[in-house]
Amino acid sequence: QRQWLSGEVLSQQLAWWRERLAGAPEVIELPVDRPRPAVQSLCGGSQPVAFPAGLSQGLAALARSHGVTPFMLLLAGFGALLSRLSGQGKVVVGSPVANRTRLETEGLIGFFVNTLPLPVDSGDDPAMAALLGQVRETALGAYAHQDLPFEKLVEAVSPQRSLAYSPLFQVMLVLQNNTLPKLALPGLSVEPAELDSRTEKFDLTLSLAERRGELGGGLSYNADLFERVTAERLLGWLEVLLAGAVADPERRVSELPLLGAGERLQLLSWSAGEAQEPIEACLYDLFAAQAARTPDAEALVVGTERLSYRDLWERATHLAAGLRGLGVGPERRVAVCLERTAALPVALLAVLAAGGAYVPLDPTYPRERLGLMLGDSGATVLLTQAGLAERLPATHARTVLLDPSGRPVEALPQGLLTLPGVRSENLAYLIYTSGSTGTPKGVALPHRSAVAMVRWALGVWSAAELSGVLFATSVCFDLSVFELFVPLSTGGRVILADNALALPGLPAAGEVTLVNTVPSAMAELVRQGGVPPSVRTVNLAGEALPRPLVDALHALPGVERVWNLYGPSEDTTYSTFALQPRSGDRSPAIGCPIAGTRAHVLDRGLAPVPAGVPGELYLGGAGLARGYFGRPDLTAERFVPDPSPEIRGERLYRTGDRVRWRPAGIAGELEYLGRLDHQVKVRGFRIELGEIEAVLAAQPAVEAAVVLAREDSPGEVRLVAYVVPGKEDGTLPERLRAALAERLPLYMVPAAFVLLPRLPRSANGKVDRKALPAPEWRGEEYLAPRDPLEEVLASLWEEMLEVERVGVGDSFFQLGGHSLQASRLVTRVRGLFQVELPLRRLFETPTVAALAVAMRAAEGTPGQSDKIARVLLRFKARKEQAPAPDQESLAGSAGR
Fold first, then answer.
1. Alpha helices in 541-671 (DSSP H)
2. For residue 45, what are the CA distances in angstroms to 95, 634, 716?
């Protein structure tokens, strides 16, 4: 046999197996109860199984009618279940084979058993009958090539080896078709006994045998991964799936049932938030009603300026009358591009009071992107200010300049504010998000959706918590809807800031009771010690929430409640919420649906998946957007009919997020697992990597490009661009950075550019993203600071980027800096030198030397030269007094 299995015969055997196993995953990603340990302990448990007589008979009849053996039928059914549970189209199931194919070994005592890795491919979602045919061909081919020892196959295929799992397959199926004959011994009654060995070599082993016409046996499982109850549930899903295949073998694999009636009802109860009353009000009505109740209460704090509800209402209605005179009304869009002064909330409220819909534009966005948003939205009016108007692109919209208080610079024709035509279904705002094709897309939100979110929030957060809400999020980001409209609907106070990191320096910092921001910004505030003791509640959303941050927040003296919130713009800011306990070892859940929201976890066939099994999150209910403005094709793709038989005529939004209902013990909570596509969240900003790749690909010097979001250091997510240059002259990374900054928001500009001769490809020709190398976060050849200003800047960078030494030629981004740290640096520089340095300037001049030149250019402003000189003298004196720079005192000087 050894002599025969060599040369051409061995090559043919290996080629057959390689072809069948191509494209199979290294590991079946089953829904486990605990993370896979680094080394298998082989501890196991077992759960008995006995199929009902009717199902056993039906399986036998199905096998006969389709010309397959009972083993082939069970392999197809078990493989289909594994595929449904893992979300992987192709899975490999191991099975033992007797391996006695020669007459010479029939009577020989010994162990000849070999192991066959049998692939089951349901990736194209075949009917069960078609899958049976495929498995039959696979099994027959495997039997014809069973002489190849399994260890030889592993050696030849050379999969990635790990002590955490077995190679090629992790699940085994055994069907004993030769039952033991009855053993008769004089004076003894003998029968087989089931033994629980408490060991398991694989993740799962399903062992079945036919006894008296019924299939039965047991499922043994790796106790490091699974609880007994999970094994029991898995067997229940297998039974339901096989019964569905017997009833209709022409149903596709994705359509076969998994859930029993009780489990389906349980999922339905988890999926629906509390019921809400029908919504008739508009978003502005909530503020107007509160202004009538408490006209003298403080509504807005901007620096040292304080506005009452009456002040805010009068300014908004005055501007609204002017907008009505310009023809603003229901469904008319008004673009708002303003700095963060009192004019910003006044303008947003005025647009809504006039019956229109606001389109927020961030002044820091590139001119080209602002032009795309203006043109796509069809805005008829643009509200801006004198310092910004000349930087904005040409537009057909009527431009109205506002002063910092929100009053028009020029007199506007006054229109009537009586708007009987404004309804809750009318458009309230149009917010733009990143688009995978390279163009941003506008999410159209009606009043009813925003009002539903506000009403829910007023039932969760108390008036005391909302008495001082930090309004620090860009109005282009949907967290701002909560920060502005929730407190203004209940008598709360809105405290405006440039960004969350500016909180410690606000005159009203000690009055902030609630901070609503992204985890990365909050982590930085905690690190700086910048959370005032007045803060009682912290809402975190926009990106995954790490457990250590929850613990750090609960350790602060004032914080009483920490919430983890989740929701896309397409479902009005928040869709699920979870209060985070003070202690725990699990990753924070995103919780249960908010009032009026439906959250379904579905598989690729839009069928609900069991608790503990990953699927895609679909959202519906009161908060759902209309869709994408002017994009009916994309709207139809992402907003799909609700398949639930209990609900007819409603829509669901496909989030693209991979989640699961947490299994027994903590049921009813959703756990976020990641994305199903290339969309990412970086410091709370939703980014389509395809949009960055499209801009890179349009550059003449780029042949190919791929962008990834990497987390090479815990908690530090950075965008990295991998570029194949047409011709490299040594300055390409900085030229690409500048080109992207002209078209994309700064948070979408990669922190690093890695030049490659070619992009790595997988066997199917696609870019192998896992093979892309980590960037080297390093600077240029060290050149020491040449004057005190460069010395101060280098010290700031060393502290902020946590590097040992920074030279004047080092790039902030090559050292690992990202947009959030860039914002921190600009804030620190402004505090030290009182120099207004635009954030974009750091992207244009990212070295210490270049930034120092840019700062000296600001000396042309009256008084700037003296201010810089005084700071440099103080810094020099402090350096001479202490042998080593005191970074804490340096940081404190920014606050002073």
1. 547-554, 632-638
2. 19, 48, 40
DSSP label of 4: T
Identify the CA nearest to 170 among candidates 132, 226, 110, 245: 226
Residue 887: pLDDT band (50, 70, 90) is very low
pLDDT tens digit sequence for 196-209: 678 889 999 999 99
Which phi and psi angles does 94 have, rounded to 5°? Answer: -85, 150
* 119 within 8 A of 83, measured Cβ to Cβ: no
Residue of 789, 786, 784, 785 lying closest to 857 (CA atoms): 789
Q: Say how far apart CA 549 and CA 555 lie, in whole Å.
A: 10
The token duo for 654 is 């496909």
pLDDT tens for each residue of 475-516 = 999 999 999 999 999 999 999 999 898 999 999 999 999 999
pLDDT band at 221 (very low <50, low <70, confident <90, very high): very high
390's CB contacts (< 8 A; 6+ apart) are none
Is residue 564 within 8 A of residue 578, CB to CB? The reply is yes
Residues in the chain: 896
Going by their DSSP bridges, the two strands 305-308 and 298-302 should be labelled as: antiparallel
Q: How far apart are CA 421 and CA 12, in angstroms?
A: 77
Res 865: pLDDT: 58
Angle in degrees, 0-180, between the axes of helices 128-144 and 70-86, rounded to the nearest 10: 110
- Look at the block and give the residue holding tokens 């500016």: 502
Q: How far apart are CA 575 and CA 672, in angstroms?
A: 13
Grouping H, G, I as helix, E, B as strand and the rest as coil, residue 418 is coil
Report CA-CA distances (Å) from 748 to 33, 198, 499, 841, 866.
36, 52, 17, 16, 37
Provide DSSP, 157-217: H-PPP-TTS-SS-SEEEEEE-SPPPPP-BTTB---------SB-SSSEEEEEEEETTEEEE
Closest-CA residue to 349 (of 319, 324, 378): 319
Nearby residues of 648 by Cβ (< 8 Å), 6 or more positions away: 642
Q: How many Cα atoms are found within 13 Å in the side-chain-facing hemisphere of 194?
A: 15
CA distance 741 to 602: 38
State the DSSP code for 648: -
Looking at the DSSP bridge assignments, the partners of residue 621 are 597
- Mean per-residue pLDDT, 575-601: 90
Phi/psi for 385 (5° steps) reads -135, 165
790, 756 contact by CB (below 8 A): no
Of 260, 257, 237, 233, nearest to 245 by C-alpha is 257
pTM: predicted TM-score of the whole model, two decimal places: 0.80
Q: Are 651 and 642 in contact (CB under 8 A)?
A: yes
Give CA torsion, residues 605, 769, 546, 748, to 10 deg: -100
